[in-house]
Write a structure and sequence with these properties.
alpha/beta; Alpha-Beta Plaits
Length: about 500
């Protein structure tokens, strides 16, 4: 095990927990949060619908530029100066949109950047009970690909910038909105491209990234507001088994598909070691104070030294808890064989790993090689651009940025006004986000969506993705108040 030297969590997380705890205004009357009017809500909903119904997958049918150009038109039609609405990118189908809401006069502080991706993962009509690229409202939910990840936040921020401009709001510092391509994969990651080639358009004091964080619900009860402090490292690996093939009437136990499935069975049965860091410890300590019964007792037990591994095993039954405890790897794609009547000469699988901070992709690749223990099987790294290589790189996990009061004071107060009494707590994002590119460029990034979801109803990337109607409305109210609070600093 090798810990990156740059992973400096204890003091920062302690400060974040202290800031969140000290700013939680329990029992203190807060100024009411402005509620979106019927017209504001209708506008936001129309933008949401428009975005959902534009296919922005990284497929021949998808086109990010169609979505970003549609949003560009909305800003220009609203009167935004053309010089403040930038549609640009390295590929005609993958154009990013960067919009500036200008400050009054000459600002003394650097801008605040809201970072949102507009691409989504593929969704097949045959897998869904609704059309994934049709915006459907039923039973108190909005359905469609991207309703959770993350066209809801795209729509909320577009609507917020339009509303602020319409009202004549002049912040003390510039506010920037970036809508980008290929966060979910592809050759033209917009966030990385903007930081490396157009830093002037996105250079900010800090970034608010709604692609992570949010409000946890437990059977309708708001339990905790999560703010991303660090995140796992995303890595794909290609497993390949080869064989001489042969006639299917003469089956052999060592054909390529059997070799591959044997390796995948080992992966399914394997559990990476239990781990915690200061971010996850803070998270479970806070959560244990909200839970009851065996769950609360188990959370307290894993915080002991040494941790109670039996308690960890019981908590592992909840997938979101399990993902906080360890590196996870799972097969996501399979292929093999050329004919129905022939033994396969090649079989392949893609294994997707979300790597616990402190470990590199190459370290995990070597662990997989050792786990499979099969010289006939190769394990290679697949980059975000789809390039395959024999070894994997080292990547640095996001170090928790300092808890800037200008961010956490309004974040905590507005959250408390909408969901009274819940703690604001740092978390480790179990997926991955574009925050990494800004963190590597020295720009602090804070992940918070104000999206309220049931723990057991996270459908991002999955079938029948949906968002509660009430969650969308509350997120809209949150970001209007939050953007003004940040702009007034």
């Amino acid at each position: 095990m090798r810990t990156h030297q740059g992973f400096r969590v204890p003091a920062m997380v302690a400060a974040l927990a202290l800031a969140a705890g000290s700013l939680s205004p329990a029992g203190v009357a807060q100024a009411p949060i402005p509620q979106a009017s019927d017209t504001d809500l209708a506008t936001a909903r129309a933008i949401f619908k428009q975005l959902i119904e534009i296919n922005t997958t990284d497929t021949p049918q998808g086109n990010v530029t169609t979505a970003t150009a549609a949003m560009q038109k909305r800003f220009l039609d609203a009167g935004f100066p053309a010089g403040d609405v930038h549609l640009l990118g390295p590929d005609p189908r993958k154009q990013d949109l960067v919009v500036w809401l200008r400050a009054a006069g000459t600002p003394t502080e650097k801008p605040v950047l809201f970072l949102c991706h507009v691409d989504v993962v593929q969704a097949l009509h045959s897998d869904w009970t609704t059309d994934p690229f049709q915006f459907v409202e039923k039973d108190g939910y909005y359905y469609g690909r991207g309703t959770q990840d993350m066209k809801d936040s795209d729509a909320v921020l577009v609507a917020t910038f339009l509303r602020l401009y319409k009202e004549g709001y002049k912040p003390k510092r510039d506010l920037i909105l970036a809508l980008t391509a290929d966060e979910e994969g592809g050759n033209f990651n917009g966030a990385r491209w903007l930081v490396s080639t157009h830093r002037d358009l996105v250079d900010a004091a800090y970034v608010i990234n709604p692609d992570s964080g949010g409000v946890e619900l437990d059977q309708g009860r708001a339990v905790m507001a999560d703010v991303e402090a660090t995140e796992k490292v995303y890595s794909d690996f290609q497993l390949t088994a080869t064989d001489r093939g042969g006639h299917s009437s003469l089956p052999r136990p060592d054909n390529a598909i059997y070799e591959l499935t044997s390796a995948l069975n080992k992966l399914e049965a394997y559990t990476f070691p239990f781990e915690m860091n200061e971010v996850t410890r803070t998270y479970f300590k806070s959560l244990s104070e909200r839970e009851t019964g065996q769950t609360a007792a188990d959370m307290q037990a894993i915080l002991a030294t040494p941790p109670d591994l039996a308690a960890a095993e019981r908590l592992t039954a909840e997938p979101s808890f399990n993902a906080n405890f360890r590196t996870t790897c799972v097969a996501t794609r399979l292929s093999g064989g050329d004919a129905n009547n022939a033994l396969p000469q090649i079989a392949q699988a893609i294994v997707n790993c979300r790597i616990f901070p402190g470990h590199s992709p190459e370290e995990i690749r070597q662990q997989l090689v050792a786990l499979f223990g099969d010289p006939k099987l190769t394990v290679k790294y697949v980059s975000d651009a789809g390039e395959v290589s024999d070894t994997a790189p080292d990547r640095i996990a996001i170090s928790p940025p300092p808890p800037i009061p200008a961010v956490f004071t309004p974040l905590t107060q507005i959250t408390d006004a909408i969901w009274p009494g819940i703690p604001v707590t740092p978390i480790m994002e179990n997926g991955a986000s574009d925050s990494i590119y800004f963190a590597q460029a020295g720009i602090p990034s804070y992940g918070y969506s104000a999206e309220a979801l049931e723990r057991d109803d996270v459908r991002a990337h999955g079938r029948d993705e949906r968002l509660p109607v009430d969650s969308f409305t509350k997120s809209l109210n949150f970001f209007y108040a939050f953007a003004k609070a940040l702009g007034d600093e």
